[in-house]
Each structure stands twice: as structure tokens, then as C-alpha cells.
Design brief:
The protein has a single domain, classed as Glycerol-3-phosphate (1)-acyltransferase, CATH 3.40.1130. α1 packs antiparallel against α2. A seven-stranded mixed sheet has the order 1-7-6-2-5-3-4, sandwiched between helices. It starts with a helix and ends in an 8-residue tail after the last helix. β3, α4 and β4 form a beta-alpha-beta unit. It is about 45% helix and about 15% strand. It has about 240 residues and is of the alpha/beta class. It has seven helices and seven strands.
Length: about 240
């Protein structure tokens, strides 16, 4: 059975990237001149991935909670590419703080820049935070929902990594509300490897955090709500490697 699921997973992955190329051929001539067409393209792609995951590998997906639609920050748990897919499929004008090298990824990199994603080099944290804030608050930056990963990278289910202060810097400088987002997608779609498991993968938008919180309170609250709810979602998915 695992061998069959692995083959189906491989088929799913191949068609997923073929679909990216096909949609790029159709949308790119429009997206060059009209930014909304770039959003249309990423929405169409993410919804196709969700549809094809269900029918090829039996991986159902669900987004819970009120969908953020105003200009704000989304601070999300990041476990695999699938949580990106789920969030982008639903919010109207998504953009990301992303690794700088992703700018050069075929198709994906161009579309990321077109919808206003902010590339940041890792390593020099203070410099990266300063540039991140400048890019996000720049007058020419397109409005929308800025998706941030407070832990800075993908984190496997059951693993722990600290929450980084860059999220607070953006929260403070933009004066925008933050919507935390929890997930269990890593239980079904891992950071590495081909196998995609059957089940229900969830991203859940939680209660917004209003502007004006002190740094320590903000960081503690954000980590508590995201980790607590993500652990609950992972337990719901049958993963027992999280605290009770």
C-alpha cells in the first residue's frame, strides 16, 4: 500500500509542476501588464494543487477561520509547501517575506516578485530586519496580506524552533494587526521526500492581534496561540509526537 501511495505521490508531484508551466504560459502575458492577473494565476495554481491532491493522493485540505482580506500581517506556522498553497489559495492579495534565492526560481520567482513578495538574505539578522521593514513599508509596495513565518523556516511536526523578533518589528513599524495561523500540513506533506499521505490537512486562521502590544507580550502570545492550536490540529490528524 505504501508503494502504491508513493507512486501516486510521484504522479501528483510531476503533474503539479507541469500545471505550473501550463498556467504560466497562459497567464504571464497578462500578468506582465496587469498585476491582478498575477494574483489570478497564483490563485488558480494553488486551487488546482488542492484539487489534484485530493483526487490523486487522497489528501483533502481545509482552511478554517475567517479569511483575512484587509491589509494586515499573517504570522503562520510553516511545515511544508502545502501551508503556502492553502493560505495563498484563499487570501485575495498574498505576499511573502521569502528567502532571497527564491527570486531566481523558474516561474515561481517571477510571480513572487510580481505580487510584491519581499526577498531577504539570511544571516545578518539586524540588517535583514531593517531591510525587511523598509521594503514592506515602502510607498510603492502593493497592499495586501503579508505572510510571515515567525520561526523563519519550515519546522517538522514535533520539532521546536524559537520565534524570531522580525515579526514584531514588522508589526510595530506597519501598525497593522497580526492574524496568527496554525497548521498540521507537515503530518501529510513533509518538508522533504516524495510521499504524500492521505488525510485532512488544515490551516486555521486564529483571532487577530491588535496593534500596540509590547514586544514581550506580543512574542509570548503569538507563540502560545500558534503552537497550542498547531499541536491540537496535529493531534486531530493522528500525530502523537506533540505535547498533550
Amino acid at each position: 500500500m505504501i508503494a502504491v501511495q508513493w507512486v501516486l505521490s510521484l504522479i501528483f508531484i510531476v503533474q503539479m509542476y507541469l500545471a505550473m508551466a501550463v498556467l504560466a504560459v497562459f497567464y504571464t502575458p497578462l500578468a506582465i501588464f496587469r498585476r491582478q492577473s498575477a494574483y489570478d494565476a497564483v490563485h488558480a495554481y494553488c486551487r488546482w494543487v488542492r484539487f489534484s491532491a485530493r483526487w490523486i493522493v487522497g489528501l483533502r485540505t481545509e482552511v478554517r477561520g475567517p479569511i483575512p482580506t484587509t491589509e494586515l500581517l499573517i504570522a503562520a506556522k510553516h511545515q511544508s509547501f502545502l501551508d503556502i498553497i492553502l493560505i495563498v489559495s484563499e487570501v485575495p492579495r498574498p505576499k511573502f517575506i521569502m528567502k532571497a534565492e527564491l527570486r531566481f526560481a523558474p516561474i515561481l520567482g517571477w510571480y513572487a516578485m510580481r505580487i510584491g513578495c519581499v526577498p531577504v538574505n539570511r544571516g545578518r539578522r539586524a540588517e535583514a530586519i531593517k531591510r525587511m521593514v523598509a521594503e514592506v513599508t515602502h510607498g510603492d509596495a502593493p497592499a495586501g496580506q503579508l505572510i510571515i513565518y515567525p520561526q523563519g523556516t519550515r519546522v517538522a511536526p514535533g520539532a521546536q524552533l524559537p520565534y524570531k523578533v522580525g515579526t514584531y518589528a514588522l508589526y510595530e513599524q506597519t501598525g497593522q494587526a497580526v492574524v496568527p495561523a496554525a497548521t498540521n500540513v507537515g503530518v501529510f506533506w513533509p518538508r522533504h521526500g516524495i510521499l504524500r499521505k492521505r488525510g485532512l490537512a488544515v490551516v486555521e486562521f486564529l483571532d487577530p492581534m491588535a496593534p500596540g502590544m509590547a514586544r514581550d507580550t506580543f512574542m509570548k502570545t503569538l507563540e502560545e496561540v500558534v503552537e497550542t492550536r498547531s499541536n491540537a490540529l496535529m493531534r486531530e490528524a493522528g500525530f502523537d509526537g506533540v505535547p498533550g
